Fold each of these.
Amino acid sequence: MILNSPHHKFILWLVLFMFGPFVWAKTYTICQACEHSSVKETIQLADAHDTLLVQKGTYREFEILVDRPLVIKGIGYPIVDGEKKGEIFRIQSDNVTLDGLFVINVGVSYTKDNAAIRVIRSKNFIIQNMVLEQLFFGIYLEKSSHGKVYHNRIIGEAMDEYNSGNGIQLWYSSDIEVAKNHVQGTRDGIYLEFSDQITITDNVSRDNLRYGLHFMFSNHDVYTNNVFENNGAGVAVMFSKFITMKNNTFRKNWGTAAYGMLLKEINDAEIIGNTFEENTIGINIEGSNRIKYIDNDFIGNGWAIRVIGACYTNSFKGNNFLYNSFDISYNSKLNDNVFEGNFWSSYTGYDLDKDGIGDVPYRPVKLFSYVVNRTPETIILLRSLFMDIIDFSERVSPVFTPDDLKDAQPLMKIRP
Amino acid sequence: MLKILKYSFYDLIRSRWSYVYFLFYLALGFVLLFLNNDVSKAVITLMNVIIVLIPLIGTIFGVMYFYNSREFTELLLAQPIKRSSIFMGQYFGVAGSLTLSLVLGLGIPFLLYGLLRSNAIFDFSLLLVTGAFLTFIFVGLSFVIAISNENKIKGFGYAVLLWLFLAVVYDGLFLMSLIVFEEYPLDTFSLVATMLNPIDLSRILILLKLDISALLGYTGAIFREFFGTDLGFLVSMAILFLWTLFPILSLGYKAKRKDF
């Protein structure tokens, strides 16, 4: 009687539809003494939407092909040991979940990019709570989309660039969320190539050989709240458009070619609220246009910002420049960028009308930075009285530095 | 020697010069901290003061003291005391009292503003040690100048010139030569040239702590070896020590041979 009402019929169908897969899906338990003792073989037995529970133990397997939608979940971090023979997991199906496995010993190859986990042409995958060690490439996403790489720990022991791989690599992928991962000791911590609409949040990428984060030809990506520390060359963002970078921290990237952030051929990006601390170069900018630098903190860097050339219509507003050896360095006399309302710790002007804005413009480019650009050895004269005198006279009447490169409204108090 | 050292020391305190010097540093320390309210920032500003002012004050003070106490020196020379102990006593008396004023004058305000709780304590102690070294070096150099010149005006002139040369002109010449010879490898040259000037040497010693991130930006293997490791710190310290020894030895040498 009840079922006769079309309304109730609909609900019944809905319930069946929602719980159907769970009602019919099976759960396989894999352990060394069980009926199923191999991950690879159990996958072949399983039907779509089944769940594989991997019990604690060591599974010496490699080239595990996941070609149907499955949930593979480790209990108590079982070890999947590839014994350096090759790739370990290869996902070639939509709706796959990998959770809580300890994957070690990926085979190093000079012809193939072996990865601990490779995802190929798949959608809606979730890779979470994985621990990857002794790896070549960590998680390699290839032409995949709408997935999630969440809370993984990737620890490599890369020594040389030529025989090491990247922690998390995205290649021709889109709409993927990379969050709360910890990557260290790989070549590039997180590497994006031709990948759009990617969100990268709350990751820590440190002690990598080359870049903590590396963008190539990837547009409309957002990265927020990440920490990049002590990487060989910091973070590189190259040949990309419409990137948003917010509230990240770039620390202690020291060396001759180390940058907090390297921008090359970047257009229309937003760099907001980031902290650059104790890097040799905070931001190195080359051929980048229409970028907004707002509310960033530059603390104790060698060069806070180094502009190499061909950078137009960028604006720097409300940033704090604190105790950097050089605030801004330019290598040309041309300037098309706007500096407005920043706080400069070396500003010496006054504020007679007490509106919080200095009455005298601040010129952030020191003549000395030009001298250093030309003859790098002169860096040894940093902070000498002679250089201070020269800088002062240049500041009074600019000859070598761009005349219009100044902050006409420098803040008197540090932006909180 | 100790007796003469003590005498010179008390003489300076009685003549209030030590107090003036002490109060100057005290005021400087308080004003800097009051304006910045941040110990780390104040250390940077202080560095500029230390590498310029301390040599100047040391030079002027040393020359002045030597000429002023000339009569007393002659009186002492008539006594059966070793010449070296007379001059060394005076030298250590002056340099010691200046150093004490420096350390106390800057130390007290920084301690009051919570130096012990900040992580700038190592930078700050390095600053004071460098300051002490510079005092000893420049008082020594000025004593050597004063003992070699009977004429006070000439002596003062040379002393001020020495300061001007080491503090400003030397760096100018250094910079010029770096730019003129920029085609050549200059790593070793620039490091050696730095070592030859105690003011530059102290500056580098402090930079090693404050601006290390900038110094590492240059692509030279020798630079990297020098700045990137503890080597730079140890070598600079050792050479600074040699620099202190040099005027003391030449003062002893001059004093022994001078005919009063």
Amino acid sequence: MSPKRVLQALTDQHLLDSKQRAVIQSVEDNRLFSVHWELRSLLYAGILLFTTGTGLLIYKYIDQIGHDLLILALSVVCAACFAFAIRFRGSFSTARTHSRSPFGDYALLLGCLLFLTLEGYLQYQYTVFGTRYGLVTFLPAILFVSLAYFFDHRGVLAMGLTALISWIGVTVRPLEFYFRGNLKDMTVLLSAIALSLVLMVVAIGLDRQRIKRHFTITTLTFAGNLLLVALVAGLFNFENRHLVFSLALAITCVGFDWYARKEHSFLFILMSTFYGYIGVTYLVFHYLHLREEATYLYWIVTGIGITVYLSNSRKIELSKQKE
Amino acid sequence: MMKAYNETWVRNRYILDQAARWQRQGLLDEAKMELIRAKFPVGFRDSNGFIEIGLFVFSIVAISGSYFLLATFLSRLFDVDLFYHFFNIGFGAGIGLLGGYLINIRRYYRSGVDNALIIAAVALVCAGFIGLFPNNLPLWQYCLMGLPLVLAAIWYYSDLLLTLAAFVTLATAIFDGILELSFGKQLLPFVLMTVSASLYVIARLYENREELLYWRDNFILLEWLSISLLLISCNYFAVREMNYWLLDKRPAEAPEIAWAGLFWFLTFSIPGVLFYLGLRQKERPLLIMSAIGWGLALAAWRYFHPLFSLEIYLAINGLSMLIGAVFLIRYLHVPRSGFTDQPDDESPKSFLLSTELLSTVQATSGHLDPKDDLRFGGGEFGGGGSGDRY
């Protein structure tokens, strides 16, 4: 429905007088076509292509390029990016801040990606970190998380958290439902759980202190996914610990459900529902050895049950909003 | 005639959306907005994207369970094929009725549950109906049998997934049907181009008709789909590879195609024309898809005539995109020829701004392999989402 028609409909119902209508009409007639997000996407895609290209380029021609020259060039560009970001950084505040340049955030992103290339190159060529491989991911993790808070950049925060998670040797990709890394190893599994709990406590603590509250959801999403994946993996991989992991998964799911209702964030309801369902379904089929008909009945009952439950979450939300 | 969803509510929804946009621009105050809401009520159940995903998935789980349970009980009857096909049609119709009932009672509108029921109903009815025909007919005939059913369902439900299904069915029918002709292989790209361009024109013509408001989103989706098909069917790489896969005996490498020059010309000129039209008409789908078309064209050119290695292309193209974007952002700092860099309501910012979604995508798809990282980690991140403000 074109704005013109809407304007006509409102006028027909005597909801707008002729003056209001004329104002809106003139605003609509002079409306500009915004390409803001298209250009940002182009910029972002350009950064990703460029850093991927240079990364691969160095990897391929590692023996043909002068090392010192390469390190120098990478360092200069990387430093220039950070310098640009610092130059146009908004004043520091615990609330949300913005770079004073439209390019500040992107320069920071480019700087961080180039830093990874530089770091990887240094490690490959000169093994600067020796055999302390953990440090190779821990360093960017700490650096990126600090930079994210310093510059108020959620993209860099996400990169930092990804690095932090991979530091303990886990790669979380629930979309593929594939636990890369070593969630079959109890030490790694417990580290993942510990890290996610620490991250969640820190995130909620900072939220309480009103420090960069818009970061809370990003951190909680990362930590929550890690925790839930770890618990489900525990259930799958450690048969003798089923009781502990089932209880922990149940408590986590209920916790997320409670938090989601409190904070009106449906993503967490969805997360707890999906992981909870996977866990319960696994246990049911593991212990009950359902026959064909019972399996189908299980789908029907759980499918309808969860649908009703999810529909009602919406109702609770609405009634809360009305209050 | 009656549709599945209340048409007045659908219309009021568009009016309220537009009025809310004006309110955000400061053109309407809250008191006025209240009056507008009272005058144009929308009775649909409020919805949330994340809950919709869950509702869709678990509705499909419940429907599958019911289908297989009932099919297991009736399996003895299925020795006669006809029973099985009628079972599908009957079950599909039942699901459809249930969908209609829930849409009325629970006031669903694209809320996940109704989408799942509609998709399942149409899929089962189509499968049952097609099953009634002999099973040695060519694929395109089955597609053409199913298409009217899907189109009728789109007319009734205006469902977007069904629109996608109808588009794929039509494209498959054309693909398979044309190839039956002796000169089909040569003709196919041109037919696909003609059909997709025509569909785009039709969608553009009818998209803003008030009497067709119920299907507005379907027309917009059709625009995106038809431009995508147009770009693929004119692309030299796609045509050459398709030609290769249709050969009875495949040599090691895809052979040169007839009218290669023409296809190279189309590969580059069609995105150019789309870009020009997009600029003239200020059409977002045209502008975005023309940029993607150019990307595809350059990738095709690089594939057959590589000057440098892939990494160099990535770096050079990335850098030129970066420089181009920086230049345009600076250039459009002041509005020029009706274009601006200031964000507005129409931009797809609801997606890009949704930090929850963004961080989930990052959390679930981003990966950083510690081992890779020992060497070069550039580009291994699903980073993203920079500042949202100019």
Amino acid sequence: MALACFKLPEFLVERDYDKCINCRVCERQCGWEVHSYDEEVDKMFADTEKCVGCQRCAVMCPTGALVISPHPGRYREHGNWTQEHLRDAIRQSETGGVVLAGSGNDKDYPVYWDKLLLNASQVTNPSIDPLREPMELRTYLGAKPESIEVRDGKLVSQLPPQVQVETPILFSALSYGAISFQAQEALARAAAELGILYNTGEGGLHHDLYRYRGNTIVQVASGRFGVDPDYLNAARIVEIKIGQGAKPGIGGHLPGEKVVGEVSVTRMIPAGTDAISPAPQHDIYSIEDLSMLIYALKEATNYQKPVSVKIAAVHNVAAIATGMVRAGADIIALDGFRGGTGAAPKIIRDNVGIPIEFALAAVDTRLRQEGIRNRASIIAGGGFRNSADVIKAIALGADAVYIGTAALVAMGCTLCQKCYTGICNWGITTQNPYLAKRLNPEIATERLVNLVTGWSHEIKEMLGGLGVNSIESLRGNRLHLRGIGLTHGELETLGVRMVGQ
Amino acid sequence: MNERNNGRRAVRIDATGLYYRDLNQLVREAISGGARRIELEGVMGQRYIGTNVYECPDLGDVEIHIHGVPGNDLGAFLNGPRIVVYGSAQDGCGNTMNAGEIVVHGRAGDIAGFSARGGRILVRESAGYRVGIHMKEYGPHKPVLVIGGSTQDFLGEYMAGGVIIVLGLGIDGPHRAALVGTGMHGGAIYIRGEFDRDRVGKEVGIVDPDAADMAEVEEHVRAYTDNFGGSAEEIIAGPFSKLYPKHLRPYGRLYAY
């Protein structure tokens, strides 16, 4: 029996009828069916309760007649019982279900990037102007040998496989199924234009995207969806997904409604069945088992590709990471607790895992202490919002970063957090052809390229200010960072000094 | 050593003391060089046999005969060849395999057939824990796993497709595996002989197989007896139970939207 709904609307839709021309754009743009037109009175109406606040109608309205704002009607304010706590408890008392959420942890935890400040050269060493002088962002991902031998100016040692990227910013795992084909194609095309990599996630590789193989990371996760030798060999890097920052320790259920048409073909499962990714990979219960899969993948790709292992940033991340490196991982991908997702139980998204800043610092420190930092590259992900976050991560020890949410924002995402419903007015996290078609892959590609190009320019400027001409010179150089407003314990774990020191 | 065998180019490789990577490289080179039948002698624990031959041509035509005990992940990601083991297989046999056949004249360890999407695995005797977890099928790909004896717990957990047949030959008493088919949402498990119905997952239904089911079982039982001997008729006489998923979407009602 459906129980009566006691929820207040979250958003208020206000229409300026002096401006509204009844063009019905808002009605067509809204997959939530908020707007409707009443012919009898020749007037547009809005069902405020259905609005998720994605702002699609407001930005598409040709006359600027719409304003969407947080609903002023609130439950009585309570310091402990926030509006969100009330809403979720009401929702659960009506359904008995697990509350889902999209996007990343949106709670007010400290963002440590904002408490780290970069250095700049003054007087004693000259800064470099990247507009006049070369500035190197090129990065090589993969295990580096203990030593190399050079004879007659030529490298004679055989290096483990290296993957070259032109800037240390990669698109993180976003699977086809979670996002539309148009969105994934845009990521692939942008990666190809930028000389970087995108990541298929655990959704298989659509046959039309094999042409971007030179810029593809493929994932092998607990469901093994779409994984076959063609898939593994189409990639530059094969990534074993153990965990994800948005939902450490749990698996995923792509609901049967989303396993339609090409999604079913690409995942290689029948249409309409749930795509269930178990919480663990059942062939990995230990570091030794992880090693077994790493080398199985190396055998399956004839040792031509680095194998990455992605984990969520959790409490003992440093010890786990050293086990991963010793198990044979060429790349360690760390995903902090602010990392996004298409769907996660909100209680997990908001309460499990640790910030990427600490995980990254702890792992880099531990691998250096054990003398094995060269044996794996580190890719950090989970909440990178701008180029300053990226460059600070490099200084803390990352080789490159993964951006997911930032890439979605470039394509139009406004973080309404409703990805799990399959309705996305921006055409990104939907398999509804009517909605998906509005995302033009060409335009989305251009926007992605613009974002990463802009960030890369900013990184060059900041590097120049530091007086270094290569991202290599910054990697793990924490002397370029200072902490502000941090405790001694925090500074110690981050391995940075306090401002003024 | 090269020789002709039934018109197929055969290659014999002595695996004694070889590191797995070197052995697998030799196998790869042999198949790339046109060998269709590989005899591996003295195999002792080498992993991933049959995994690295992906780019070799006409893999469906290749047979790898293993004398000894191959190591973990035998035929992981296998995509065409037929592997025959004259001995037992260790853990991960047929892990995520896509096509081909693995015939084990002995036992198989844990997670045999894990996440397989196609091909067939025949195990003469029993297998370990977590066998056939998350097997799946798609289009023409339908994996089949036949276990001659019994298995340990978690058989067919999260199973999404394909067929598992457990024959119960030579076992003492009923099947003892617990938590069979937990989270199952596709495929079928056929168990011959007695088992405790309370030990299967709550997502699993149990029925007597119908004629179409038994035709499928018979096809694979005959493959079993063709390889290992015994009377197909006696085995087919059963009794078999069919375990099937009650729902395609076992967790469809778990969430609050």
Amino acid sequence: MTQLIPPLAQKALSDCAAPPPARVVLRERGQREVFCGLTSIMWLHRKMQDAFFLIVGSRTCAHLMQSAAGVMIFAEPRFATAIIEERDLAGMADINEELNKTVSRLLERRPEIKLLFLVGSCPSEVIKLDLGRAAERLSMTYSPRVRILNYSGSGIETTFTQGEDACLTAMVPELPETDAAELVVVGALADVVEDQFARIFEALGIDNVHFLPSKKAGRLPPVGPNTKFLLAQPWLRDTARTLEARGAKHLPALFPLGAEGTTHWLKAAADAFGVTAERFNAVTEMPRARATRALTRYSDTLAGKSLFCFPDSQLELPLARFLSRELGMKLEEVGTPYLHSVHMAEELALLPADVRISEGQDVDLQLDRCRDARPDVTLCGLGLANPLEQEGLTTKWSIELVFTPIQGYEQCGDLAELFARPLNRRTRLAV
Amino acid sequence: MQLTVWTYEGPPHVGAMRIATAMEGLHYVLHAPQGDTYADLLFTMIERRSKRPPVTYTTFEARDLGSDTAEIFKSAARGAYERFQPQAMIVGASCTAELIQDDPGGLTKALGLPIPVIALELPSYSKKENWGASETFYRLVRGLAAAQPRRPANRLARPVCNVLGPTALGFRHRDDVREITGLLFQLGIDVNVIAPLGATPEDLTRLPAADFNVSLYPEISDVAVRFLEKEFGQPYTKTIPIGVGATNDFIVEVCGLAGIEVPDLSAFASNMPWWSRSVDSNYLTGKRVFIFGDGTHALAAARVAADELAFTVVGLGCYNREFARPVREAATELGLEALITDDYLEVEAAIARLQPELILGTQMERHIAKRLGIPCAVISAPVHVQDFPARYAPQMGFEGANVLFDTWVHPLIMGLEEHLLGMFREDFEFNDSAGASHLGGHGAAEKVADAVAASAQAGEGAIAVLHWAPEAENELKKIPFFVRGKAKRNTEAFARDKHLETITLETLYDAKASYGR
């Protein structure tokens, strides 16, 4: 346990340079115990303070939104559902006319809205309601006061965090043009993490750092051929592609989970912006040491323990890399709803060769494998956690990982603690 | 198209899940896209169930549309049968699958499974959760019990009834069932089948063996018990045993249906009547209470509030239109207009306007109450994790009445404390903005109560804004926050009546004399 954390990411960097070993990925289709993309509105609506998300869907969508987080957030949410009714479907009401009325009612009630997303759902996709046209039409009415964009968070096209990908992708064409050499950090981060990263970039001497999404939707980062971007989250396939189409360059890196991941991620930006190794070390040395210190508190609990990850947010691969390399956990299976081989190349290269990686899901088969493996910790969604606990397994709810600040040096200990807590609890309980 | 922020009811297939999850040996194959599995967590997290709901979702994707979604359904249904070996299956579609019209019933029939398969038609774009639960239960009862013979009357044995209506995710259903079956047993009545909670499909085939049915939750059981009455001549209970009076009425009703003597009721004492009559409860007299929930629970709460706690009901309503009629009738008897709506913003506006001292509502009203700084107790679904207590806490029967007394009175500021707050408004440690001393306070109460008053005023629209003289305004602030909003409204209404432009100290006290408390 003395040297769990590599001194720096040099080792990781050289590992990445080698072509990743060919891996067999288990691909499954069947019942998926995952959320649809609408669920990412749960954090997006808090992140972008002048934006509003109007789901055009069914009662199921509305019910999902109030049940998914396990709590109702009654601080007037910045989302709502326009529920399609029988008369809309039967053609008794012109559905576009109804949508116009709904938007007008909403904007009257919430005059502070600057950016309105019309969010497509399974039913709106199936009836082929053209929300792109609707957004254009409504933009003409409400521009310039309100900008109206659209994307789909439907379950037939998106899984959970892919909703954020679709949302950001819809924003990319809105970003102003620039020729300046600037850095954009893409993916919603907790405010505290965003501020920490901003301070580190400043200390590194990288100016003009922008975050997408930012707290104000009106403050969009500019983008152009000299833009370089880091992905802060692993679920941004389409956003990255759209940014690249505008000439921006993706900086491949590990995701900023754990000390190793954070260092590698920051180093990718530092190298791209010509920061010297000395300066990089000087800036990151202290927080890196703090992160290492914070992790040692949990290494006794977690080292040698086995982990089984059900697919949920696409954070599973980076998490597994962090837990295996920095805390010595043994990986049984790492499931992900979707595996992006390019964005995940660095992560895959650092995972043990023998770990089973699965993409997609057939939940009953995966539960069989999990029961066979009897892992010490199972990372899974809320629908599975209590039933597995009842079977004697120790679980960690995966949704907590997207609602907690876990990225960056200062959060390494918190992230480890999330996995240590259920084990700790099991040890303490005598009932 | 309806603009919704929060909903009182989920879609009808969630109602069907409440039936399937309540039962044993039944499996539900649901044609649904990815994401609809969110409904599992209602049961595993909110209700803390330790088993997954017995539901298989087909999880079709965009690329499957128009090609082989029907095949996906068939293989999911076949796979579910093989893996779970249920006694019976229900099959149906969620809102999205309803649009692609794959006919789950027909597809499953074609599989020729060796068990009863009941197809559900649950129109997602016009119906809601309670309707879905009721329809599912009715279809199961009809499908499984209809072919059975009726039990021959055997007057020598103890009378037998079924207890129908309790589901998964119901408000205190688990405890109500225990309370009511215990009561029935003490009365000398045996229980044949409790359903859907804990029943198997095989149990449902035995329903006709009972003499009568106890319909505990009409939202769920009404259609089924009407069918059983028509098909098997089984009468059913109409009284919902919530509160002491209703429980006594229920006892008389079931004894009548069972053909037995009504026993001496003093054996079934509840503490509630004495708790309510003891002088300590004097301060509860005329407390203004707003009641909202499902029709059945709202009606029951209104009776308990008025007759058993001597509260004044100032608002009564329900979110399920199917039960609007009796709620309207009850409201009329109380001199009120019922609020029938599933728009929580309308409910919030009504509460802000009425300024009640206590809200008896659902999880939604609890949030409204928090925002408005008004005490609240939950009496009905929709429910949250806090509404599934570890302890035994029925709503029904005599123990249920005890629970109602405790949970409704608890959020209020207690009698003597209320007086002290009225007398010494300006004590820096002990004042109304600190809230009830046994509740740890709700710091922002004063501000919130003022906001309520302001929003209530704003709601009155065109009426000219009255001017408050400074000394009257100061005096108003000496009135405890829990009645201040009401006092302000009354005074302003009084001033308008008298065509006064400025409210003085005199006006304030004139209004007080004119209105009473």
